[in-house]
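Quick one: Response regulator receiver protein from Leptolyngbya boryana NIES-2135, structure tokens please.
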Amino acid sequence: MPERKRIFLIEDNRGDIRLIQEALKSTATECDVIVARDGMEAMQILQAQDPYPDLILLDLNLPKKDGREVLAEIKADPLLKHIPVVVLTTSRNEEDIHKSYDLHVNCYIAKSRNLPQLFKIIQGIEEFWLETATLPIRTG
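--- reply ---
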């Protein structure tokens, strides 16, 4: 039996958390979702994970420490930088997009407020990152 995939969702909006969790339940891959609601909590959880998550879904606009800072810390940490990070945010700002890629985000996706479209986006993320892509072995 294949090992369950682990997704770390860093999102402060309760409604978005619920929708993303529901969308992930409707996908083919069995996965556990760990949630952090602000950037400081996210880094504390990440540094205590064993094993690390297979994928991080990161909102940019977070309280306490914003997603840009979290992304920079993840990609600067030799133990965390191999984890794929997908920015999933409402921002379509070109500066946010460029800054995220400058910080080595693996993918930048603007959230849709259209529920069927959001489910399609989450399904696409799950299919690509957890079924198609070859990821490094999780270590902690």
